C-alpha cells in the first residue's frame, strides 16, 4: 500500500505539481490524487475519519502498465541482481545494495528511493552511491535502512527537496544540514533524533518537518508514548512550514509558533499550564490550521486554553492529552470539527458536534459518567473508550447514536463489561444496534480482545 501524503510530498519535490492561485501545492496534488481514484487508476485502501484518502494501492494490471511506461522514461526498479544504465533519472532499490556498480556515475539521477534495504552492506555501499555525481538529485528516501549517521555526501546535495530518514537509526543531524536550502520535506519520524541544530533555521523553503517516534517500552495508552523534539529558538523563521510534528513546548517556542501562519498541522508536546496563555495567542494567528494536537507534560498537568476566544475556523481535528479544568468554550463552535478527543466528565448537549465522526476517550482516570443527549453527534460512526476504569456503564444515551458503526472498549471495569454482556447484561440493549463492538484488555503490554 502507498501512503498518500508521502506520495503527495514526492510529487511536489519532483516538480510535478503546478502552482494555482488560492491553493497550496498540497491541495492541488490531493486533487490530482482524487482524479486518479475517480478514474480507477488508483484504488482506495484506507480513508481518514473525515473521508480523505489515507492509503492507496494500484491494481496489478495498471501496475504492469506503469512499470512498462517507467522503463521508457528511464525510471527503473532494481532487485538484487539488476543492472541499470548511467542515464537513469529515477531509481528505486529494493531489499539490497549488494550489486551497486562502482563505475556508475548517476549524473542524471533526480530521485533515489530505497525500500527495506536492511543488509549490512548498506553502510559500505552508501559512499559508492554518493560519489559526488548526484548533483541534480531532488528526492532522497532512505526509509528503513540501517543508517546510524547522515552520510557527509547527503548535505552536499544542494538541489535536494525531499529527504526521508524515517525508521533509520540516525540519532542526530549535522550542522551542515543548513546547506540544503531548497529542502521542502524533512522526515525523521521513527528515528532517534530528539533535538535539531540551530542551522535548521536556514531552510526557508521547508514545508513539512516530522520529528518524533513512539516509545516501544510504553503501552499504547501510556501518556508518554510519543517522543517529540527540541526545536531551535527561532523556529518561527521557517515561514513556509505547513506541517510541524511534534515540537516540545517552552515559552519561547510557543511564542515563535505564532509566526508560522501557513501551518495546516501542528503537534505540541510537554505543554505546561504557565505557557497556555502564550500558546492561545499564537494559535489565534494560525488562520489556516486544520489539525491540532496538544499534550501536557504529565497526566495531571492542566491544559489551559481558556484565553483563546475562538479557534481557527478550518480546524478539523483536535487532540488534547492532559487535564482540563474547564471545557474550552470555543470547542462547540468548531463547525468543521471531524475528529476530537477530550477528557473529564462529559455531557454532550443536544445540537452539538453536528459533523463529528469519531470520538476517543483515553486514560481519563476521573471519568465516571458520559451523557449523550438526543440530537447530538448525529454523524458519529466510531467511539473508542480505553482505560477509563471508573466508568461503570456505557455512555447514557448511546442508543440515540443511530449511525454508530463501531464501539471499542479497552481496559474497562468489570462492572461495565458485565452490564453489556450479551446474555445477562442489563445494558446490552443500549448497544445492540451497533454492528461491531470490540472488547479488549492489555496483557504484557499488548492488546488482546474479541468482538462481543
What does this entry look like structurally?
The protein has 452 residues and is of the alpha/beta class. Among the domains are: 1-59; 343-452. The chain has eight helices and 24 strands. α1 (4-14) crosses α2 (25-38) and α5 runs parallel beside α6 (276-283). Pfam families: LRR_14, WHD_DRP. Residues 108-337 form the Disease resistance R13L4/SHOC-2-like LRR domain. This is NB-ARC domain-containing protein. InterPro entries: Disease_R_plants (IPR044974), LRR_dom_sf (IPR032675), LRR_R13L4/SHOC2-like (IPR055414), WH-like_DNA-bd_sf (IPR036388), WHD_DRP (IPR058922).
Distance between the termini: 30 Å
Describe the main β-sheet briefly. Answer: 17 strands, mixed
Mean pLDDT across the residues is: 85
Structural Rg = 24 Å
Q: What's the β-strand tally?
A: 24
Uncertain ranges: 339-343
The count of helical stretches stands at 8
Level of helix content? 10-25%
- How much of the polypeptide forms β-strand, as a percent range? 15-25%
Q: What's the overall geometry? A: globular
Structural class: alpha/beta
InterPro entries: Disease_R_plants, LRR_dom_sf, LRR_R13L4/SHOC2-like, WH-like_DNA-bd_sf, WHD_DRP
Keywords: Nucleotide-binding, Plant defense, Repeat
Pfam families: LRR_14, WHD_DRP
Domain Disease resistance protein winged helix: 2-65
